Every structure is written in structure tokens, then in C-alpha cells.
Amino acid sequence: MPSDPCPCGKKVEGTPRKYEECCQPIHLGNQVASTPEQLMRSRYSAYFYALGQYIHDTHHQDYRGNTSPEEFTQSAESTQWCHLEVVQSSQQDSSGVVEFKASFIDKDKLHTLHEVSNFVFENDYWLYTDGQFQPKTSQKINRNQPCPCGSGLKAKRCCL
Ligand SMILES: [Zn+2]
Ligand SMILES: [Zn+2]
Predict the structure, then answer these.
(1) Which domains are present in the chain?
(2) Near ion ligand 1, which residues have CB within 5 Å?
(3) What does each C-alpha distance from 66 to 15, 58, 71, 84, 129 come to in angstroms?
(4) For the segment 66-120, what is each residue's pLDDT rounded down to a tens digit?
(5) What pTM was estimated for this model as a whole?
(6) Which ligand ends up closest to the CA of 146?
(7) How far is the CA of 27 from the centre of ligand 1 (A)?
């Protein structure tokens, strides 16, 4: 896991970053997300690894409702996350916006969530508040085509 490519798909000069060099130190609390995009990526990776406590803690308490860390874990575990694409991101002093597409697999289909997320900087931490959701799109995955996760393998040998 630590030496796998990070689920968030972050690349540096075309080379995928390893989880242990990307989102893991943030998940472990050894590093703080320094931008809204970095926080958003780490939240996606937390969904990928079903780290409910992290998902809970990085969601602003005024916005996350009564959802418990365990419930975040359960919901993340029930979804096979596959791919993240950050469309664009921006930040001001204490707020930021990240537009992204997050895809998951259900049976033979790839479902893509398209969200514009809002973030605030409070007490030295970036936090997710809420987002505007575009309609979900779905497409059938061709088993013999490159896997949508970007591994370079055929889908049938990878995430399907
Ligand atoms: Zn990452
Ligand atoms: Zn794959």
C-alpha cells in the first residue's frame, strides 16, 4: 500500500507519486494539507482506503451533520473508487474551490461524480464545507480497453 501509486493520482513531472510520499503523511497527521487541492486529494484517497475518521475530521463540523466516522468508513467501504481527476482549483487567503471528477465502479459500469467543492482555512487547517454537484454520468467499461484508473492494464486485468 505505502509504495503503491497514490489513489489521488498526483503526478510529479509525469511520474505518479507513491502513497507514502503523497497522501499518507497527511492521513497519519505527519503533514498538513497546504492547499485546498491537497486536502481534496487526501480526502479522495481517504475514501479509497475507507479512512472514516479522516473523512470525518476534514469535513467542517458545521456542514457534516451527525455522520459518525464509522458511518463514513462504511459508506467508503461500500464503494469501489477508481479514478480522480482534478479539473481546476483556486484559493484565496482563507477559502478555496476545487472542481473535480471522482469515478467509481459498480459491476461493469464507471460512474463519475462531478463536484465543485468549497473549502475554508480555519485554525491552521483546510476543511471541506460543501459542494455543488453536477449530474452523475455513467458509462459501460470495455473489458479490453485500458482501465479507467490509469494503471495501463486492461480493465479486465485491473479494477473490473
Ligand atoms: Zn495523494
Ligand atoms: Zn484499474
Answers:
(1) 11-157 (3.10.450.50)
(2) 6, 8, 10, 22-23, 41, 45
(3) 39, 14, 10, 27, 14
(4) 999 999 999 999 999 999 999 999 999 999 999 999 999 999 999 999 999 999 9
(5) 0.95
(6) 2
(7) 10
